[in-house]
Amino acid sequence: MSDISYSKFLIKSKFNPKKAKKYMESYDKIMESGLFDKNYYLKAYPHIAKSGMDPLVHYLFYGYKEDKNPSAQFNLKRYLEEYPEIKKMGLNPLVHYIDNDHEGFTLEENPFVARRKKILDTNSLFLADYSFDSEPLVSIIILNRNGLGHLQRLFADFDKKTNYSNYEIIVVDNASCDKSVEYLHSLNLPIRVIENSENVSFSKGNNDAAKIANGEYLILLNNDIEPTYGWLNEMVGTVLNNENVGSVGAKLIFPYYEDMESQGKSFSIQHAGVKFREERTPYIYGPYHEHMYSTMLFSDELNHKKE
Description:
The protein is α/β, with parallel strands linked by helices. It has helices at about 5-10, 15-35, 40-45, 45-50, 55-60, 75-80, 85-90, 95-100, 110-120, 150-155, 160, 180-185, 200-210, 230-240, 260-265; strands at about 140-145, 165-175, 190-195, 215-220, 250-255, 270, 275-280, 285-290.
């Protein structure tokens, strides 16, 4: 039975007993189906969390009318396309789905999670897999402030993903108080930590690390990055095998966003290189990010597939 009292449904129904009973039955029906995800709903629509209203109550009275998704697993858009009369009749699509025992409109897994899996599964197809007579030392510089969660994701299986052995890591910690430093010292990696007593600027932190770096090459790596297999080998190989290359960057993919406003760009391309174009006069050239926010993850234009 519903953990929301009948009186609350009665008030929301403007003291209509029949409507209150109907909403209460729908509440129990949806809860039993497992197709409403309260955590998803609150993260996707944060203003509801601020209101303090029970998320399923909000969905029953308001959310379905605004085409809000009850969970990441229910394919609301396709369901409404299949049954357009639902919207015309003012019916709740999730209740309609449950009452009519329809199949094929729930997703076994979040589509964005599936996209992430495809990225990881096909990553090796685009690796040049360079080999070197000798590996130059690379200094990986990372700035951090209270980013323990980011660091744990970054360094998870770091040595397995980094198929390049000659590197050192220098982390500049800007007065973290979340046990970041303790975590860094616990890692079995070639890592040094600069422990600052204050939060220094981004440029100063990187410059301080560069001064003590031993590497022939420097990599400035954000702490919220999750590298994929072969990342460092590809970057070093690109520099060493191209005489006209002075610096390299990686293709960046957006993470998963639970809020609906940003969710569409989850696991799409954030950055795939910088080009220069003429700005204002023939003598001034400015950088721009090509393919910004692109979903063309697997296009030939953005990837060089290994033969």
